Amino acid sequence: MQKNDQTFMRRALELAKRGAGRVSPNPMVGCVIVKDSRIIGEGWHEQCGGLHAERNALQNCTEDPAGADLYVTLEPCCHWGRTPPCTDAILERKIGRVFVGCLDPNPLVAGKGAQILRDAGIPVETGVCEDECRRLNEVFFHYITHKTPFVVLKYAMTLDGKTAAHTGDSRWVTDEAARAHVHETRNRLPGIMVGVGTVLADDPLLTCRMEGGRSPVRIICDSRARTPLDSRIVRTAREVPTILAVTEQNERTAALAAAGIDILLCKADAQGHVCLTDLMEQLGAQQIDSILLEGGSSLAFSALEAGIVRKVQAYIAPKLIGGAEAKTPVGGAGFAKMADALTLQNLTVTPLGEDFLLEGDLPCSPASSKK
Ligand code: AOF
Ligand code: ZN
Description:
By secondary structure, the protein is an alpha/beta fold.
């Protein structure tokens, strides 16, 4: 692999990121077309249903791309989806060589795109900046194979592990930079989920307040439909799509539906709460490929116990507040032994102003995957 190849692929990665929050449940993909070491065309997948990165880059070429090198962060597709196959466009425009970041796990593509190009005599190199390309689309990689949302558990806590003072005061645990980062995530992921306890305690809006951002679909886990009709979430339900996951339908769910809330009837678990595995399957069927789980502490534990959480984002403020009764991010019954604790992988630490963001992955256990 040449150093130049990585430079062009990194440019394609930058372009791909422009699709954040716009392409779900499709992947973010970027493409650069290069002739004599000069970029002659750039493109990215701009929105779901729109042209793919390769076709956009080919369309934007300032000169004939015949014989040029094409760099794309994801294997070119070879199937008819909402758009025609990218392999056709690459062959029609007589591209000389193709450099691919990572193969497409979509069973309709999965290596066949690269093979079609090779069979047509085009040299294809795969695995250029592969790690970065895979990481960019961790949501897509999960969703296309499991058909359930990639769940990110997010919380902010003090250095002594509290999400609020013992009085309940929680404004604010972290500073502005960390809070702005949360809004970027709200913009990126199509769903945001909380338990009804959080609605009753905080009356949150759960919208994205980033400039130019778009708000995720709000999902409330509320088995017995206790969300108040005069809560801010219900009052804004006609502007921001909102799903209430319940275990029974009654006059309260009817009143909430009349106020613009989508009622989603779910199976109940042994405790009578919404069965999270069932909820994830139903949300996946609605094309919601990822969800930011913002609390509260009992839903966080239920989600961890059910094995639906794939990533944890812990914002940590360098503050000590104490209080035996002060809330912690993960409640519920808890696991009995330290040996049962869930251990994060691929941990990263990012300083944000005075605070820190700790992020790590939780691998998919066989029980929590649909195959
Ligand atoms: C590419 N380049 O830019 C993207 C690809 O419904 P469609 O037509 O948008 O196809 C969606 C599938 O195509 C998606 O699941 C993934 O396998 C691939 N996405 N492929 O060659 C792109 N966005
Ligand atoms: Zn394509």
